[in-house]
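Q: What structure does this chain adopt?
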Amino acid sequence: MFTGIVEELGEITSWDDLPDAARITVRGPLVTSDAQHGDSIAVNGVCLTVVDNVAGAFTADVMKETLDRSSLGALGVGSRVNLERAVRLQDRLGGHLVQGHVDGTGEIVSKAPSEHWTVVRVTLPADLDRYVVEKGSITVDGVSLTVAAVQPGWFEISLIPTTLDLTTLGRKGPGDPVNLEVDITAKYVEKLLGAHR
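A:
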């Protein structure tokens, strides 16, 4: 479980394609400072398991399912990524509850900068539309954000300079894919209500 508060901007330093997976190494001195084999680290919002941790970098296996469902498959050596360690029970919950289980991908449509923030419009897959509400939470590339506006097929988020500086969202532009995770609460409510119909 994560909070969607990115701790560090990391970098993919190696990528090995396997028959039905990939093995990647990601540089991230902060998130690896106390990482152990088997720990979880979110990479652009995707929960990955540490299989090795050496000299400020960790290695993880990414199965085909994850490569197909997320935007990780579009990355390579040199790609910058948002990193967050799994939350501990005594930590502050600064964002919202994030599982690191990507529901789908969107694409940045536009970025409209203003003096104090930037409004970003992202495509929204039709099967996720019902889970996204104005002023609700959504995770974009592992970043916990508040939905500023939503319409069929898209939603908007407003990014402050800190978010633009400290995450990959400041480096991405129109046409770039992003990982999306909707608020898990909405999915549970839908299932519970469906069971009583």
